[in-house]
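## retry 2 of 3
previous attempt timed out at serialization; input unchanged, resubmitting
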Amino acid sequence: MIRINLLPARVSKKKQAGTQQLVLLAVVVIGGLVGNYLWAASRGSDLATREAQLREKLEVLDRLKAGRTGPVKMLDQLAQLTPKRLWLTKLEQKGDALAFTGVAASIDEVSELMTALKGSTYFKDVELKKTSAKTDKAFRLVEFALSANVVYPGAPVIAAPTPGKK
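## retry succeeded, writing output
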C-alpha cells in the first residue's frame, strides 16, 4: 500500500490562511486609521468654521451691548445737565448727530445748557441753530434748536466684518 503524507500541505495551507488573515487585519487597521484621520480633519475644519461664526456673533453682541448702554447713560447725563427752567420738546438722533428743540424761560438757560453739554463727555460740537422769543399766556419764553454730536465713551471699538471674508 502506498502511503502519502499530506501533513506538509495542511501546514502550508494554514500558513497561507494565517498570512491572509494578518494582511486583512493590517488592511482593516490601516483603513480604520485613514478613516479616523479623515473624519477628525473634517470635524476640525467644521470646528474652526463654527468658532469663526461664534466670534462674529460675539462681536455683534458686543456692539449691540455698547449701543444699548451708551444712549441710556447719555440721556441720564442730559437729564442731569438740563437747567430747571428749560424743557426739551424734541430730541432726534440720526447716526451720531443729535438735534435738540425746546423752550426755556430765558436765553441764559439755553446758554447754561450749551455750556454744560460742551463740558460733557457724551456731547461734542454743540452748536446753537436758532432762538426765537415766544409769548405764552403772559409768559415770555425762548424757543431754541441745538445740534451736537454724540460720543459714547468706553464703548469698544470693533471693526465691522469685511464682506466676503470668513
